[in-house]
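User: My instructor asked us to take a sequence, write out its structure as tokens, and then describe one feature of it. I'm not sure where to start. Here is the sequence I was given:
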Amino acid sequence: MKALLLIDIQNGFCPGGNLAVPDGDAVVPVANRLIREGGYDVIVASQDWHPADHGSFASQHLGAKAFDMGELSGQPQVLWPDHCVQGTSDAEFHPDLEMDEVDYIQQKGENAGVDSYSAFRDNDHAALTGLAGYLKAQLVNELDVCGLATDYCVKFSALDARDMLPDIKVRFVSDASRGIDPQGVKDAISEMKARGVGIVTSDEILAD
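Assistant: Let's start with the prediction itself. The structure tokens for your sequence are:
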């Protein structure tokens, strides 16, 4: 069983959003092509779904500015602009993303006391989202991961898939993803490669 995991393709991470990834909306047509033509048995979309008082928001720290380094629950934390707040348009999936074909939505980042980059678990690894169990139940043995942003939520989701589902082949789809920082993207790809994540393009997937 082959699965596609779309990471956080939401308004908040696309141009005009509160935490826009450069060129973030360019992943949408590529993701749609994979959804339609990639031959996937299971399609999952993760959704950042923060309470308004999430501790990773700079607005929750007196005198802090967005992108400062701060602290959350005793751990170093990038302080982000308020983004993907539950029930707001910023948290909605990009309107052009073909959500009708998505089988399962995994929300994340609901605990105000810890950030959650990965679709599989919180950053402190104390709480699981349940996504690994869902994929196991679907008998998935191949997982392609893409979306926003390469150097944060996509990377950590791919690495957690390798750690938590060691029998599954995991691949990162490079042209269906965009990152925040160019050097961060290079480092993320190197780290994923080193941890056994395959690096592919959508054309390579569709040519299979």
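For the description part of your assignment, you could build on this observation: The mean pLDDT is 97. Try explaining in your own words what that tells you about the chain.
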